[in-house]
Description:
Layout: E1 2-7, H1 22-25, E2 37-40, E3 44-46, H2 52-58, E4 68-70, E5 97-99, E6 105-110, E7 116-121, E8 127-130, E9 150-153, H3 159-167, E10 176-179, H4 190-198, E11 209-211, E12 224-229, H5 235-243, E13 250-253, H6 262-274, E14 280-283, H7 287-292, E15 298-301, H8 303-313, H9 319-343, E16 348-353, H10 364-381, E17 386-391, E18 394-399
Parallel strand pairs: 3-4, 8-9, 9-10, 12-16, 12-17, 13-14, 13-15, 15-16
Antiparallel strand pairs: 1-2, 1-11, 2-3, 5-6, 6-7, 7-8, 17-18
Helix pairs in contact: 8-10
Amino acid sequence: MELTLLGTGAPNGLPRPGCPCAACAIAVGADARGATAVLVDETLLLDLTPGAAFAAARAGHSLGGVRQVLLSHPHDGPPVEVPAGLPQPGRVPDGRELALLTGHRVRAVAMDAPGTGYAVTGPDGQRALYLPPGGAPAGLEEGAVESYDMVLVDVVRRPDALARLRAVGAVGPTTDVVAVHVDHDVPPGAELRRRLAAAGARAVPDGTTLVVGVYEDVPDVPRRTLVLGGARSGKSVEAERRLESFPEVLYVATGGSRNGDTEWASRVSAHRERRPGSWRTTETCDLVPLLKDDGAPLLIDCLSLWLTDAMDAVGAWDDAEWADGGERELRARVRELTEAVRGARRTVVAVSNEVGSGIVPATASGRRYRDELGRLNAAFAGECEQVVLVVAGQAMVLRG
């Protein structure tokens, strides 16, 4: 089964008409995208968009053989003109299945937003799922669906849709996840590719023909990632974004509750509110057992607070205690942590502060903390497949 993506952009296309944003300004050439529409084996058209016939011709295809046109979402603005020879567009009621004379079967998938998803099974049994913009499947049950060979989904705006599909086994290790309905939420080009790769997905240019069931060399999600950054750099958001397309993430908060500190409580609350509801949270600095266990991905936020706790425990702030075994004990704790990271079999994303580029601390204890955090970051980074530095909300890949 072949799917030709006549467009891969949001309903208004990319760049959006008249939009002055930076993402739209650089969405030119191969990064410009028409509204998403998918031609299946030149016989089924999913979503009719303006200029679909010309888009098909540019891709070396024709709409002349299309026998069914299905719409996945409400279209704003004036009605789209139906090219001569095409059947009138329609929608399939949720849960119903449509059988085509060509041997294709199309089942309508209920969504949690206005629109309809379509599960398409080809004559040879290949299975693809196409979801509308801004929508995620509703009412999925584990074991109720088989794994799809290909999924076309709004990865950027609805990463939780991908998480839901993974949770029930509809997206497996061999599923080709392709981003569609791409809008100006992420700068096009390298940044979009980086964001998608972190979710195990990819984007393709308009006019690309995809063969369902054929293996594609999509970058694997890094098993261990360290995200560095200064204060309010966006490092925690970057770390959370990397796992929001996966279900059952365990968020490890190393900062504790700090009873009575209202400013800290508001920070913790803000973090919790932006995390997916399916994530679990544990407050602990005992990271080694978690790293040694199998299970859901870990998001550790953050190593700098873990270090504060470790330095408290070994008496690092007292020069005498530091010289009389405290430094040696801290080195042992850091070594134990990094060895656990090396042996970790679960996905790990850790956050840490980068403090070595600013003002030299005025106190000896401040300088000691700065130095030890630099050593910890370097040791932890040495065990990670990917290391990212976040500056002003922009992620720069240092490794991987």
